[in-house]
Design a protein that fits this description.
This protein is α+β, with helices and mostly antiparallel strands. The chain has one domain (2-79): RRM (RNA recognition motif) domain (Alpha-Beta Plaits). 19% of the residues lie in helices and 30% in strands. It has 2 helices and 6 strands; from the N terminus they run E-H-E-E-H-E-E-E. It has helices at 17-24, 55-65; strands at 5-9, 30-37, 44-52, 69-70, 73-74, 76-79. The chain has a 4-stranded antiparallel sheet with strand order 2-3-1-6. It has a two-stranded antiparallel ribbon with strand order 4-5. Strand 2 and strand 3 form a beta hairpin. It is globular.
């Protein structure tokens, strides 16, 4: 299933989930679409994820859309890497606060 999930980068900031779904439906059945937005401003960060229903459709989408230009922006489409586990706890790895 991870091979069906695609990272799509370089999207125009005003591109919608619906537009992305319409585009990728040309390559096959789109299971889900999620353009990532800034949690404070709500503005698109210019990338998102598309899940296709099969590995074959995901590969077809990569062939069709990787390097394609949308509104003068060249998009990147590839297999999404699995989410890395984030360290829990506040301030780990930070040395700017010292108690004395």
């Amino acid at each position: 299933m991870e091979e069906n999930r695609l990272y799509v980068g370089g999207l125009p900031y005003d591109y919608s989930d619906a537009q992305l779904r319409d585009m990728f439906s040309q390559a096959g059945n789109v299971v889900s679409v999620n353009i990532i937005s800034d949690k404070f401003s709500g503005r698109s960060k210019g990338f998102g994820f598309v899940e296709m229903s099969s590995t074959e459709e995901a590969q077809k989408a990569i062939q069709m859309f990787n390097g394609k230009e949308i509104d003068n922006r060249k998009i990147t489409v590839n297999i999404a890497r699995p989410r890395e586990e984030r360290e829990s706890g506040r301030g780990q790895g930070r040395s700017d606060r010292r108690s004395r």
